[in-house]
Write a structure and sequence with these properties.
alpha/beta, single chain, 2 domains, two-stranded antiparallel sheet, 8 strands, Rossmann fold, PGP-like_dom2, HAD-like_sf
Length: about 240
């Protein structure tokens, strides 16, 4: 087995605690869209997370149209995507915090120079860059090593489609077995697994031990190699995959 030379990190709720802030902004827009189509249901940020965690806004809107059987024109959709990006970035620039313990691990990895480091996200590039910049993690990632399923591909997509991981592998000139991905969601883990990349399932951002246990089982069931409850366990998890 080739040795691990690169680590791909998901951004939202893996590096930066951004999901709740983003879903608050998404809920406002989702409700505006539902209202404009005379649909009486309304979402809170928490309910959106339950239904659509790991999807980007474009993916969410596709799911919402399917669920409620209405159609947005391409122009309407693009307008909402842009509006959502602006709203979320404003919230992130105001309130985003790093996931507990991750910055210390990034610092160690960066100093060791043993691995290439990249961010592979479903979220729009502007949003990912705003997130990591706000929490001071941008210094660990060269700008060209930040990849977005919504922005970096010829055709925008969202995890669990493996396209963004395949693109990152190509740009970084890596084979899947030379890389480890750190993911916290079903769609993110599936995206990496479908690209052939071994996954560390990070569950530390989920609220409470019951939810963490549930997600650990879900992500292992999908094929994640090892579960990490806290970033302090990262070196041990990486060593486990390297030894396999």
């Amino acid at each position: 087995m080739p040795k691990i030379t690169e680590i791909f990190f998901d951004c939202d709720n893996t590096l930066v605690l951004s999901e709740e802030l983003a879903f608050e902004a998404c809920a406002d827009l989702a409700n505006e869209i539902l209202e404009s189509h005379d649909i009486s249901d309304r979402y809170t940020g928490d309910q959106l997370i339950q239904d659509f965690v790991g999807q980007n806004f474009r993916g969410m809107m596709v799911s919402l149209q399917a669920k409620y059987k209405f159609e947005l024109s391409q122009d309407e959709l693009e307008g909402y995507v842009k509006k959502e990006e602006d709203k979320v970035i404003a919230k992130l620039e105001e309130k985003a915090q790093p996931c507990v313990g991750v910055t210390e691990e990034l610092e160690k990895l960066f100093e060791s120079k043993k691995y290439g480091l990249a961010v592979v996200s479903s979220s729009a590039l502007r949003r990912v860059r705003a997130s990591i910049k706000k929490v001071g993690q941008d210094k660990y990632f060269d700008p060209e090593n930040v990849f977005s399923a919504a922005t970096s591909l010829p055709k925008p997509t969202s995890k669990p489609d493996p396209a963004i991981y395949l693109h990152a592998l190509e740009v970084r000139n890596k084979k899947p077995e030379e890389v480890v991905a750190v993911e916290d969601s079903k769609s993110g883990a599936l995206s990496a697994i479908r690209a052939g990349i071994p996954v560390i399932a990070y569950v530390g951002s989920y609220p409470g031990s019951d939810k963490q246990l549930e997600m650990a089982q879900v992500l292992e069931g999908l094929g994640a190699k090892v579960v990490m409850k806290d970033w302090s366990e990262f070196e041990q998890c990486l060593a486990e995959i390297e030894a396999a």
